[in-house]
Each structure stands twice: as structure tokens, then as C-alpha cells.
Backbone:
């Protein structure tokens, strides 16, 4: 598991914040502002099709 803090937009243009990548299950875990049920997740392949990173809006990788 790898902790992240990167911002993306879904295919509707709604911003989300990616907080974790789970390579063993190939899932991307993210938060939607105002979504009261907690974390959301998406299989990596689906996430790559439906989300685009908001350029310049993430912490540098270490």
C-alpha cells in the first residue's frame, strides 16, 4: 500500500483526492468532497480511463 495525496477530475469534471494505491489489489482509493460515506475505490484500469490528474496540484514524490 502506498499513501498519496494527488488531485484528479472524474469524467464529469468533479475533483477527487487520491489518498492510496493498493498494488496487490490494483485499486485506487480516493475521497470525494461532500461524500459522507467515506472512501471510494476504483480498479486501476477503470480509474485510468475515467480520471485525469489536475496538473501541478500534488505533493512531490519522494
Residues:
Amino acid at each position: 500500500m502506498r499513501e498519496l495525496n494527488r488531485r484528479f477530475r472524474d469524467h464529469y469534471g468533479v475533483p477527487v483526492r487520491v489518498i492510496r494505491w493498493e498494488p496487490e489489489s490494483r485499486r485506487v482509493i480516493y475521497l470525494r468532497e461532500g461524500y459522507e460515506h467515506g472512501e471510494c475505490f476504483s480498479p486501476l484500469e477503470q480509474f485510468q480511463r475515467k480520471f485525469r490528474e489536475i496538473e501541478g496540484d500534488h505533493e512531490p514524490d519522494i
